[in-house]
Amino acid sequence: MTSRKPILFFVLPFGLLFAAFYLAPIGYAIKQSLYKVTRTGTFGPAHEVFGGLEQYQRVFQNGPFWESVGRVLLFGVVQVPVMLGLALLLALLLDSGLVRGKRFFRLAFFVPYAIPGVVAAIMWGFLYSPNLSPFTAVTSNWNLLSADLVLWAMANVVTWVYVGYNMLIIYSALLAIPQEVYEAATIDGAGPWRTAWSIKIPLVMPAIVLTTVFSIIGTLQLLAEPQVFRTFSSAVSSTYTPNLTVYSTSSIPNFNLAAAFSVVLALATFVLSFTFLKFTSRGGDK
User: Fold this and answer.
1) Three-state DSSP state, 65
2) Per-residue b or e along 174-195, where b marks 16 or more CB atoms closer than 10 Å to that residue's CB
3) What's the domain count of the chain?
4) How far is C-alpha 106 from the geometric centre of its chain's CA atoms?
5) Whole-prediction pTM value?
6) Distance CA 138, CA 209 (A)
7) 52-80, pLDDT tens digit by residue?
8) Residue 196 gets which letter from DSSP?
9) What is the CA radius of gyration of the chain?
10) Residue 146 sits in which domain range?
11) In 96-204, which residue ranges form alpha helices assigned H by DSSP?
């Protein structure tokens, strides 16, 4: 019988880190969400007591929170397909024989991802600002920081940062396709467009699904961009996105309600990601 000690030797470090930095915070957030703070009198000392599902009742009755959820869902429905479509297009171009200097362009496309999200948001915020932007011909005609356009201004920032990251994942999947497949397609008379549409895209679909799941999770966690844009636009409130609502609530401070917001948001992220994976896997089984 094979000894299990070598297996435990490799699995145990991951298990400990997973429990310490993933399971423990989730458990602590759930525990915090079940408590509430009460005071004896108006200015009396605060006491944390068990409140059951009272915080969750407040979450589901919180209109601004659910408006922020709807806002990021709209954001994701538009921004994620655009970003992944651009990432797929760039990956196909790099994998084709049409582009020279592939190493340079691969690095150039990836560089925005190396810039911290806060720095990228500040940079784009200055470019959008009518008084600071060098592109006054654009900002004087379209107020990109207005209530109607600020969401899509942030979508542009997110797309600029992450399109190169997703491109690399898809491009890596393209490089893994055996050359024999392309040779067979060439013998059958398939041109570059037909090869890309009928061979490359179907074979990299698992990578596209993976990047979509990452994007769904990232969309519901949108925080850095709206938090920075609050300094540039009055249209971005403290409850503009779900994560910003959590941050603002914990700053009051109301950690118990913020924990309940976090748990509900985590469950919503899990449900959306799991539903998308089930939908795509069902489509692949047909």
Assistant:
1) helix
2) beeeeeeeeeebeeeebeeeeb
3) 1
4) 22
5) 0.87
6) 36
7) 899 999 999 999 999 999 999 999 999 99
8) I
9) 24
10) 63-285
11) 102-114, 117-128, 136-139, 150-175, 179-187, 192-195, 201-203
